[in-house]
Amino acid sequence: MSRLGLQRDLQEAAALERRRQRELQRQSRIFNARVRTIGVDKDALDTQVKDRKIQEAAEKARNEELANEMKQNDKILCMLEERHKNDIRNINKAISEFQKNFQKPETRREFDLSDPEALKKDRPARLSDSDPRCTVSGLQKFMGEDLNYDQRMKFQKEQLREWSLQQQRDWKNALADQKFADDLYDKNRIELDQKTMERQRKEEENRRAVCAATKDFNRTQAAELAERKKLEKYQKMKDDMDEISSLLQGDLLSENPEQAVSSFGRHRVITDRWKGMNQDQLMAIRYSQQQQVLEKLRLKEEERRTDAEWDRQSIQAARAQLVLERHQQRQNRERRRAVDNVNAELSQEQKSKNIYLKEEAYSNFPTGQYYAQFNTTSR
Questions:
Q1: What secondary structure, in 3-state letters, does 200-226 show?
Q2: What is the pLDDT of residues 46-73, one digit of tens each?
Q3: Which 8-state DSSP code applies to residue 27?
Q4: CA torsion, points 270, 272, 273, 276, in degrees to nearest 10?
Q5: How confident is the model at residue 368 (pLDDT cuts 50, 70, 90)?
Q6: Are 69 and 4 a contacting pair, CB within 8 Å?
Q7: Are 18 and 51 in contact (CB under 8 A)?
Q8: How does DSSP assign 73-123, residue by residue?
Q9: Average pLDDT, the chain
């Protein structure tokens, strides 16, 4: 039946695929202006008629297949019904044979009321010391008589032996159950420890990956900062050297007096080239130079503070990472401690259960019943 269902699914999938292909061909004919025709498309209609016949044939084959499958199911149902009837017949026959062999009229509880041979089967007034008919008023049993001493003692010994064997079997079963429970507990403990170790290993790997990524990022940032400072220092040194060279080679610092001579006479000077300055002007220039020196020192101090701030932030980031690692380690220790507590509780519960099973096994030992029966038999 599964093969027929698979074949039917394949046929349906093939039919759907053919329908999809026909729809795509129809859309290509309709939306393509070169091959589109006005009016009835006889080829398309013939194709549709052919597909319709194929579909009807497939549907007919499918119906025939379903009919055959239904017939097969009916045959199987008839066979199952016949088997059920045979089973019922066999059960009734077995019940009749059981009643004939094991439920005879002689075994009924009330058969003694209608037994035709009751007088032949009647027992004497006293059979043994444990005869329930020997009451006080019957005067059939007196103090000191013990007719069934040997049988009673033999029965008591046999009963004691059976009790001992039963106790041994119960003890072996209890030990086997205890061993199975211990093995199961050890297996669960090992699996739990393995899962805990695997989780800790993954956490350690993640933490190492985070630390490595952080270190790489900090190393990259420090390298970029050092490279940028190096380039800035190099550019600044180059600019200073160019400026110094320009000033040294220029007329300003060379103090060439000829540059200030005017073409109208030497008594006249060109103001923008004149080098002669008074003391106040010199003092003003020196004061300006001092201000520039102070500004340069201030810039260096700011740069030093910026570097110190960057170092402080790096140290704080490293301390935060260290605090985070310690927090994760503390969480791992707490998680491990919680797992140990759970394992301890499970171990305590297992021990309590073992004690309870031992007490239950000792409490089921039929010593009290033995003495009760012994006293009853003695009476």
A1: HHHHHHHHHHHHHHHHHHHHHHHHHHH
A2: 888 888 899 899 999 988 998 898 999 8
A3: H
A4: 90
A5: very low
A6: yes
A7: yes
A8: HHHHHHHHHHHHHHHHHHHHHHHHHHHHHHS-GGGSTTGGGS-TTTTTT--
A9: 81
Q: Determine the Cα–Cα distance for residues 177 and 171; give it in Å rounded to an integer.
A: 10
Amino acid at 314: S
**Alpha-carbon distances, residue 9 vs 13, 62, 105, 143, 264 (angstroms):** 6, 11, 65, 93, 116
Give me the half-sphere count of Cα atoms (radius 13 Å) on the Cβ side of residue 180. Answer: 6
- Do 351 and 168 meet the contact criterion of CB atoms below 8 Å apart? no
Count of Cβ atoms closer than 10 Å to residue 358 Cβ: 13
Residue with tokens 């600019």, as numbered in its chain: 239
**Cα 227 from Cα 224, distance rounded (Å):** 5
C-alpha closest to that of 277 among 297, 260, 294, 296: 260
Q: How far apart are CA 88 and CA 94, in angstroms?
A: 10
Amino acid, res. 211: C
Q: What's the length of the chain?
A: 379
Please report the pLDDT score of residue 32 as a whole number. Answer: 67
Confirm if 292 and 300 have CB atoms less than 8 A apart: no
The residue type at 22: R
Q: Which helix (H) or strand (E) holds 261?
A: strand 261-262
Question: For position 267, what pLDDT does the model report?
Answer: 64
The model's confidence at residue 358, banded by pLDDT at 50, 70 and 90, is confident
Eight-class DSSP state of 271? G
- Please name the amino acid found at residue 98: F
Q: How many whole angstroms separate alpha carbon 261 and alpha carbon 240?
A: 31
Whose tokens are 């800790």? That residue is 200
Backbone φ, ψ for residue 267 (5° rounding): -75, -10
pLDDT tens digits, 211-259: 888 888 888 889 999 999 999 999 989 888 888 887 777 666 666 666 7
d(CA 327, CA 333): 10
Rounded to whole angstroms, the Cα distance separating 323 from 335 reads: 18
Give me the mean pLDDT over the 37-53 stretch: 75
- Structure-token pair, residue 255: 């103090």
Confidence of residue 356 (pLDDT cuts 50, 70, 90): confident
Q: With contact defined as beta carbons under 8 Å apart, do 121 and 138 qualify? A: no
